[in-house]
Design goal:
single chain; alpha/beta; Arc Repressor Mutant, subunit A; six-stranded mixed sheet; 11 helices; elongated; LysR family transcriptional regulator
């Protein structure tokens, strides 16, 4: 038979304390739950382990016989858990691009859990990263969760980290570059690049389609995928198309970033990981998000700011 270590741990605690209330406090569980686990162990073994009265608890002969075996099993279990906790494998974290808010989250998580190895990866797009997470080749990524296909989302967990305002990256001599902010209506007639043709960034192109539809803004056709800042700068100088990006996008020589306003469009940034995965590094990332987000108001937004309807629906489903 397979006996859960939790049941043996409940039995051993009561055997040590000979008192259900003290044993429950020692294990940080409710006394009712502890009693239930002991009764279940007794049923599985077909033996009575304790004699209970209003004044005292004592071990039966079967309880005395089980106790050394239970302690041996629990010691081995604790040794196994400690061995893997001490040598936890590296957590592979996709940051999408250097210089983004995900990098700040990773840096803080490393400070909070210096015993963990959190390794950065740059997959450039949540669609591509999600496939790597599902396949077990990556652990955590950041991006727009609503832009993933439903069957992929079903295999993943996520939490909203931040509502990121959007802007456009413009050549420094573009007519709109003279403005401090670019009204969304001012982009009418422009052709804006948003990753079309890149299979790893489908969620970003989908966001752009939602934003551009009905506003006279054309989605730029597929262009060669630029890897690295210098290649991005070169391709942008050649096409001269504005590029849709978050306002925190790293600076690129020869370009300017201008926030979009009236309304301010937002991209919901989620932290995404494989459903059911446990790792101390993931706990550290959550703690980093909690700390930075609370201090900087990452989840605050105005009613007038724009979000795609599908993203709003997904957030409502999760509440």
């Amino acid at each position: 038979m397979d006996i859960e270590p939790r049941l043996l741990r409940a039995f051993a605690a009561v055997a040590d304390e000979l008192h259900f209330t003290r044993a429950a406090a020692r294990l940080y569980v409710a006394q009712q739950a502890l009693s239930r686990d002991v009764r279940r162990l007794e049923r599985e073994l077909g033996a009575v382990l304790f004699v209970r009265s209003t004044r005292r608890v004592t071990l039966t002969a079967d309880g005395e016989r089980l106790l050394p075996y239970a302690r041996t099993v629990l010691a081995a279990h604790d040794e196994l858990r400690a061995a893997f906790a001490a040598a936890a494998r590296p957590l592979l974290v996709d940051l999408n691009s250097e210089g983004m808010v995900s990098g700040r989250i990773l840096a803080r998580a490393r400070e909070l859990a210096p015993e963990c190895e959190l390794m950065a990866r740059f997959e450039s797009g949540l669609t591509g990263a999600a496939a790597e997470i599902v396949a077990g080749r990556l652990d955590v990524s950041f991006g727009r969760f609503a832009g993933l296909e439903g069957p992929v989302r079903a295999l993943l967990s996520h939490r909203i980290v931040r509502y990121e305002p959007l802007g456009v990256v413009l050549p420094h001599d573009h007519p709109l570059a003279a403005r401090e902010r670019v009204p969304l209506d001012a982009l009418a007639g422009e052709t804006v690049y948003a990753g079309a043709g890149n299979p790893r960034t489908l969620e970003w192109t989908d966001l752009a389609r939602h934003l551009f539809t009905g506003r006279g803004i054309a989605l730029a056709p597929p262009a060669p995928v630029a890897v690295g800042v210098e290649e991005f700068r070169r391709v942008m100088a050649k096409t001269r198309n504005p590029v849709l990006a978050v306002v925190d996008f790293p600076a690129v020589a020869g370009t300017v970033m201008r926030p979009i306003v009236d309304p301010v469009p937002l991209s919901p940034l989620s932290m995404v990981w494989r459903r059911g995965m446990r790792h101390p590094g993931v706990d550290a990332l959550h703690a980093a998000v909690d700390e930075l987000g609370a201090r900087e108001g990452w989840l605050e937004r105005e009613a007038s700011e724009w979000l795609p309807d599908c993203d709003i629906a997904l957030m409502c489903d999760n509440n």
